[in-house]
Specification:
Number of helices: 17
CATH topology of the largest domain: Rossmann fold
Shape: globular
CATH architecture of the largest domain: 3-Layer(aba) Sandwich
Radius of gyration: 24 Å
Mean pLDDT: 88
Structural class: alpha/beta
Order of helices and strands: HEEEEHHEHEHEHHHHHHHHHHEEHEEH
CATH superfamily of the largest domain: Alpha/Beta hydrolase fold, catalytic domain
Strand content: 5-15%
Number of strands: 11
Distance between the termini: 60 Å
Helix content: 40-55%
């Protein structure tokens, strides 16, 4: 099984490398959305329906998922094992609430820790906790996955989640359990879209750091890197100026006869640079990730700037920039910049999604600390055609989910969505930052970073503003659930209803 998976991966990589053309441009690699890091490729288990319980009490299950929810060709009825994890330790029993984390572009393994918000609030809500893996990631691969990548889409993923949630509720006699879906970044987009597409399944959604407006030119394409620039400039004016000046310094040194070799030595690269863009792309992404994840207690932007601003007499600009690299990545590594990177299924999967529907026009404008490099849709289309033989659909997300005039549209029919953002997160520039209605609300913090609110709470290091942000989110969700039980009591036989694990009768409820 492992050999077959590796063979498929190698074949896919070979296809990608041999068909790639000179149309590929810089900035094709944009900062990953996921609140957790990349995961390695794992073997897919043979089990498709059974569950196993680990020493922590988590049940790992595999649902026999339909390949294609929207067509009726013979191939559409193919199935694959889709993984999900359940924690029933705190559940109040049938019809108590269910918190569902919608997995995104990575294996579900890391989300159990990264999405600590669920565990932190399970006792209060007496919740069943469910973590569902996105198709084509982790262990949830259809047979011959890459040959069937046309079924790899957000709409199919949402339908997957719906099928699994319904199955869990049926198997656990939880017909009236209110379901709250939660996700971060791309997963946050999925959570908000799930509430809009499947309101009969999810009572509400917490969409953390979800840039649902970074499509179809709703958000200026340079917004992301403008926030990165603002963050570094606020941290240190001299750091900002050093970074801004460094690009021309890199270009000037690279233009010399032995310049690339000198750059390779100065930045302790893992292999000799073949082009200055290798180094510049590495630095750009480093600054982006530092800003995106600029969270307490470490605050990576401050650490990078401390390295750059460190008073070392006689150091040139590029030496200062390298000190920033060491400050960010640490000095435990033997080399930097162009390490041999393992191409995980997360990397490959997100590349495909960006070439199909997740066309986020993210570029660099004139007013930033970076060299201008605007997003070019024509170049992106040509690159995707060379890699996968398909044209991206840049308008499909807004066609299928909406986005234009979102306040006007959603206040008419939408409800029960929390859009949470930390304004230090560059992706917040494409998020919903203002209330749309009484129940579609924006919860923002000036100093918050990417998906910080749904990560596990740390009482010893969490600042007051983060504690209050999470408290507000919990209060909103609690209000949804309370209203749900009141509505349920009104429309159903009160003697058959369970509220939070306790039977409700007419005498008690009044």
């Amino acid at each position: 099984m492992m050999f077959q998976r590796l063979f498929l991966l190698q074949s896919f990589l070979l296809f990608s490398l041999t068909t790639a053309t000179a149309t590929a441009k810089r900035l094709n690699t944009i900062p990953r959305h996921s609140p957790i890091g990349p995961r390695v490729w794992r073997d897919q288990p043979d089990k498709t329906t059974s569950c196993e319980v680990d020493e922590e009490g988590f049940e790992t299950c595999f649902y026999n998922q339909t390949l294609d929810h929207f067509n009726y060709r013979p191939e559409s009825y193919d199935t694959f094992p889709q993984r999900y994890v359940i924690n029933s330790k705190y559940w109040g029993g049938a019809n108590a609430s269910i918190l569902v984390y919608l997995g995104a572009e990575a294996s579900i393994d890391g989300y159990r820790d990264a999405a600590g918000f669920l565990d932190d609030n399970a006792v209060q809500f007496k919740s069943l906790l469910v973590f569902i893996e996105h198709r084509y990631y982790g262990h949830s691969f259809p047979p011959g996955a890459w040959g069937k990548r046309g079924y790899f889409s957000s709409a199919q993923a949402l339908a997957d989640y719906a099928a699994i949630i319904i199955d869990i509720k049926e198997n656990r006699s939880a017909q009236y359990s209110p379901v709250i879906v939660i996700g971060g970044s791309y997963g946050g987009m999925l959570a908000s879209w799930f509430r809009l597409k499947y309101p009969h399944i999810a009572l509400g959604a917490l969409a953390s750091s979800a840039p649902i407006l970074y499509f179809d030119d709703i958000t200026p394409q340079d917004a992301y890197y403008s926030v990165v620039t603002k963050e570094f400039r606020e941290a240190s004016e001299t750091c900002y100026q050093t970074i801004k000046t460094s690009w021309s310094e890199i270009d000037e040194l690279a233009s010399k006869p032995d310049g690339l070799s000198m750059l390779s030595t100065k930045f302790n690269t893992c292999k000799n640079l073949t082009d200055a863009s290798e180094l510049k792309d590495y630095l750009r992404l480093m600054y982006a990730y530092a800003a995106q994840n600029n969270s307490p207690p470490t605050y990576p932007v401050n650490e990078v700037c401390k390295g750059i601003d460190d008073d070392a007499s006689g150091d040139d600009i590029l030496s200062r920039i390298f000190r920033g690299v060491v400050a960010y990545y640490g000095n435990q590594t033997s080399c930097y910049v162009n390490k041999v990177a393992y191409q995980s299924e997360a990397t490959l999967g997100w590349s495909w999604q960006r070439c199909s529907e997740m066309v986020i026009p993210l570029g660099v404008g004139d007013n930033s600390m970076f060299q201008p490099n605007p997003f070019n849709l024509t170049d992106h289309i040509e690159r995707c055609k060379s890699l996968y033989g398909v044209r991206p659909r840049p308008h499909w997300v807004t066609t299928y989910y909406g986005g234009h005039d979102i306040k006007l549209i959603l206040q008419r029919f939408g409800s029960n969505i929390i859009f949470s953002n930390g304004l230090r997160d560059p992706y917040s520039s494409g998020g919903v930052l203002n209330n749309i209605s009484d129940s579609i609300v924006a919860v923002t913090t000036v100093n918050g970073s990417h998906c910080l609110d749904i990560q596990r709470a740390n009482p010893s290091t969490d600042p007051d503003w983060l504690v209050m942000q999470r408290k507000k989110e919990v209060e909103i969700i609690e209000g949804w659930i309370t209203q749900y039980y009141e509505d349920l009591y009104e429309f159903k036989d009160p003697f058959l209803i369970i509220r939070g694990g306790t039977k409700v009768d007419a005498a008690v409820s009044g």
